[in-house]
Amino acid sequence: MLNRESIFGAIAERVLAHAATGERFAVLILRVPGLREISLRFGYEQGEQAEATAHELIRQSLRPVDQVFRAGDDSFVVLLPAMLNHNHALLAGTRLIQAFEQPLRGTTSPWLVRPIMGIALHPEHGPSPDRLCRRAGMALDEAQRRGELCAVYQPHDTQVEIFYEELREALDANRLQVFFQPIWDLQANRIAGAESLARWSSQHHGEVSPANFVPFSEQSDLISVLTRWSVNATLRHVASLPASRGLSFSINFSPRVLSRPGMVEQLIGALEIWGVAPTSVVVEITETTLVNDLEVSVQVLRRLRDHGIRIAIDDFGTGYASIAYLRQFPATELKLDQSLICAMQNEPHTAKLVRAIVNMAHHMDLTTIAEGIENRATQDMLADMGCDFGQGFYLGRPEPAADFIARFTAAEPTP
């Protein structure tokens, strides 16, 4: 975080004031994702002007007593004294959201940006500037995960405080585990492959959900380390299967990793080291990856396709991708989001939507995979629609990769 000394100093003063007066205060971390894109599209001078405009919008939306600090290219920290409760802090957040409802002026082209923010309160959410800022940041991550614009830190949320050094050491020492969740061929009714999933047991927290440590990795430099570990750990297990089995294995890639130099070469090199055919690997990316950096994503994915690696668009149907995006991307398959699949039986319109997506994908020569199959009725519906593949707890829960390999080698089960 930039400007840390000034930010932490101001928060520390409020901590001392609370000790004397009992006055509560809040720390709000606000990120404006569109600011960086202004710099990339129109130049850094325009980007700096947009940042200054955003800073002024934030300041004008708040009380004179509130303090605003720059904390990065697209981030700000706001200190809100005299907060009666978390609702009082949420009112400040609402004013900030309203301030950005109109496009930013003062730039070459008016640009609409949407802020995302997280809030932590003193004393209940932390005794120190460091703890309060980290928990406000965790609340921001939670808001982004939920698709919301503002969230207050909640200790009971699924988010846990991840210690950087512990996760880094766990990756370096190969303390994470690879789990495989089976992917079924719905037309032939047999296992066709698996999705590779990372699992981590922390000394401090026990079993930590990927929903916690993967976003944490993406916010730090650990995402490259995690991806490199995932690729090699997955391929090590895949290499023990005879190529004649014809299984394919999916590996999730973060949008941050896609844009890293040398990513394609690293993946191809790992395939060569482990002796795994590129056609046996599917790189999974989410819909939001397509929108965040269209040009870079297209270039990288085309290079992967040129090497024979397949590309799956994950969580399709609930995000931002459109047919126009699909037309440009060298994808080979669509993974239908589980929220659609789970609703099919009780919502006829959703079932029609799923059928339409399957038909559209097939017309575009794309394979379809349905996520979240929880019962036989859903499996049968999807098979009748012509959906190619599926996964879900009914078809098989994630299990240690070694167990999957041993079980599949011994005999192919049926759901």
From TrEMBL:
Pfam families: EAL, GGDEF. It comes from the Bacteria. Coiled coil: none annotated. Residues 23-156 form the GGDEF domain. SUPFAM superfamilies: EAL domain-like, Nucleotide cyclase. This is Bifunctional diguanylate cyclase/phosphodiesterase. Residues 160-412 form the EAL domain.
